Amino acid sequence: MADLSKTPKQTSSAPAQSSNNLVSILAPVACLLAGYLIWRFILGAGSNFGAGSENGGFWPERDAPKTALSKMYLGGIIVPILIGSFLTMLTFVVERFLTISKASGTASNAEFVRKVQYHLASKNVDAAIAECDKQKGSVGNVMKAGLGRYKEMISNNELSTEQKVMAIQKEVEEATSLELPMLEKNLVFLSTIASIATLLGLLGTVLGMIRSFSALGEDSGGGAAASKLSVGISEALYNTALGIGTSAFAIIFYNIFTTKIDGITYGIDESGFTLTQSFASLYK
Fold first, then answer.
1. Are 125 and 275 a contacting pair, CB within 8 Å?
2. DSSP conformational letter for 48
3. Beta bridge pairs of residue 62
4. For burial by CB atoms within 10 Å, which of 65, 220, 223, 237 has the most?
């Protein structure tokens, strides 16, 4: 009986996924920079305020906001970080949506697996491979890789049926190891933003409250001081609103994407089971 470990090593036929981490590094930096520019030059434009000056460099003094959005500028330096976090979340939502949509294939994975099962039952491996070319996506890629080894094992007279099944299973596992990292890549950004956005919002609110109460302590006017305090608290709460909103969107989309990935993973597992069981039953 031939030893499977002595058979020539075959290169997986699944297409290698290019791993470009440059976008993952640059996107958050670019979004944070964009967040500052929006906060500084759009929300904090001098025309949006009735008073103020350019003193302060990157954080000019502003007062008497004319619009609700311009009040957000007075929320403090945490606001541009929160805007940048929101933009980062949107960037990776779009990126994951495009990637996972492509990985889902052109049709239902369940229907695709049934078609492959039908062709394999008819011992028409080439037709099954053609279905993989039509389906594409992660399940199609893994199935095609497994079918390539499946076809080789049919004409192999040196290995036992059990060894052939193991060879097919190993090919499926190697192809799967190429697909899964691509599906889960960059989800960490959504989970991180979901965790820290609310905390950043609370931090900005606390800092705003500290500034408001400090100003109240320096102002001896009763009614005017109370009015100024209420305005300051209102401005500080913009941080909380931004943080909670960003976190909520990140959690929603993270759960949507993980659910879709679970469905694709189930399809990959089903495809591997289909190949091994079909071979074991048809080519004993």
1. no
2. G
3. 52
4. 65
